[in-house]
């Protein structure tokens, strides 16, 4: 398996989306922002999804697709998207294969307890190559920073 670093080929993937499968091959020759988040309808994940949604038209104008990914079910995603009027598609990875392929399944700590979870991370992919990686994302200002990277010359 290829190490996930800037300049490396992005892993191929297939995810479950509201309108059917979402495949890496669908974005061949295009720009894709793939962001991984821990859980639908939690405060940080909601803020992040709303921020990306608020900028969805600008991402589209820049020729970039944005997809949010978590292990939640497609049904959970549909409910989450409807509740907040989200404008970016959400994809389900219930078995965590894509989360793991992008090295976003990591050890975490909460109140001294260790567990495995999704690292809030974002990948800017152009022509199948990872151009930029954001790890341990802080939500405030993140969607704008990603848009700035997409539109940078």
Lay out the secondary structure:
Blueprint: E1 14-17, E2 20-23, E3 31-36, H1 43-54, H2 56-61, E4 64-70, H3 74-84, E5 90-92, H4 97-101, E6 105-110, E7 113-118, E8 121-126, E9 129-134, H5 142-151
3D architecture notes:
The chain is an alpha+beta fold. The chain has helices spanning 43-54, 56-61, 74-84, 97-101, 142-151, and strands spanning 14-17, 20-23, 31-36, 64-70, 90-92, 105-110, 113-118, 121-126, 129-134. Strands 2-1-5-4-3-8-9 form a 7-stranded mixed beta sheet. The chain is globular and about 45 Å long.
Distance separating the two termini: 31 Å
Q: Quickly count the helices.
A: 5
Q: What is the number of strand segments?
A: 9
* CA-based gyration radius: 14 Å
How do the strands of the widest beta sheet line up side by side? Answer: 2-1-5-4-3-8-9
Q: State the helical fraction.
A: 25-40%
Kindly state the mean pLDDT as a whole number? 94
- Low-pLDDT stretches are none
| Envelope shape | globular
Largest sheet: 7 strands, mixed
The amount of beta strand, in percent, is 25-35%
* Helix/strand order, N-terminal first: EEEHHEHEHEEEEH
Which structural class best describes the helix and strand composition? alpha+beta
């Amino acid at each position: 398996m290829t190490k996930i670093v800037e300049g490396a080929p992005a892993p191929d993937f297939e995810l479950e989306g509201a309108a059917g499968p979402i495949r890496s091959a669908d974005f061949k020759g295009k720009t894709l922002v793939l962001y991984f988040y821990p859980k639908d309808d939690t405060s940080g994940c909601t803020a992040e999804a709303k921020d990306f949604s608020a900028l969805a038209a600008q991402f589209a104008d820049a020729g970039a697709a944005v997809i949010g990914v978590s292990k939640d079910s497609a049904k959970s995603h549909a409910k989450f998207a409807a509740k907040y009027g989200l404008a970016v598609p959400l994809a389900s990875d219930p078995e965590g294969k894509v989360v793991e392929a992008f090295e976003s399944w990591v050890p975490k700590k909460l109140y001294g307890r260790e567990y495995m979870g999704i690292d809030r991370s974002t990948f800017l992919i152009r022509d199948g190559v990872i151009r930029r990686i954001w790890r341990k994302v802080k939500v405030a200002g993140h969607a704008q920073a990603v848009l700035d990277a997409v539109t940078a010359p």
